[in-house]
Amino acid sequence: MADNLDGWAVVDDRDPSIQYDEGLWRPVKIGPTNGVGIDTTYNGSVMQPVIRGGMSFKFNGGDGRVLASVAAATERNITDETIMNSMFSWECFIDGRQVDSGALSDIEKGQNNYELCRWRGFSIAERALTVNVSTQEWPFGIDRIEYVPAVRGGYTIVDPLNPRISTDAFRNETSREVRMNANGSKMTYEYFGTAVACHGKIEGSTLPSSSATYQVDGEDPVSFDVPGSSGIETTGLQLFETPTRTSGAHTLTVTYTGSQARMPLVVSSLIVQEDPNVPFLLPLPVHRPVTQVLQVSALVGTQVHRLRLARRDLVARRFR
């Protein structure tokens, strides 16, 4: 049974809908390599071939990819590409058609969430994925399959700890936030939809405002401000919203352009609009500093008082 991860169907390596060649695969609880980039394996497990093996998976959907944990050739002191390929190789097919696959020589470091193969430009239909792997005890394991399902929702709220988000910044697992405070720090997120709204937090420290940029699909970066604070925390603040694009697979890159002496960029959630006919959620509740709340309350109170006076004058005129 596929999970739903920000609008993509995600199938774990141990899902019974995946068919493995009997006796040629073994489950491994923890990925065979340390996390690099995106942190850990999905659900903390991978399926590892003994020597060689095939797997197949049928689904109703379109574009997708297979992610794995793979050790790097440099970590095994192997530089000859012919030897590499004889020790570890793979190929992927959709409906019998071979699709793009990574190359072992491209893997500079052992990593989880390595994109073993990817297919794009496939319309929604009943499809069949086949992966064939040959390995001579090379540390490797299938982690998960992701694909665009036939049935989608209107929008999705994405947690910053989502494994599809890659960042070199600090992830706070307690508050479930990504905190960027070093110039050039990045957060990258691949999504399927039409637009993304980013919500964050302004910390209570007395720091001046800073700045950041966002890019979609490598286009020119768009700058946005990260407000400063007088010492009171503000949460649920919308930092930016991308323009609407055609529905499909896109890549969002957020870059912090401030410094450690300025307000950090803290991302608390992303809202992905999947269907252009379904509007974004109403803005998340914004918890403002007490001074701002008092100012707003005073303004509302003044307006209410004026309305009451105007209504009293109108009633008085009617009875004159």
TrEMBL record:
Superkingdom assignment: Eukaryota
Lineage, highest ranks first: Eukaryota, Fungi, Dikarya, Basidiomycota, Agaricomycotina
Organism: Cyclocybe aegerita (Black poplar mushroom)
Protein name in the entry: Uncharacterized protein
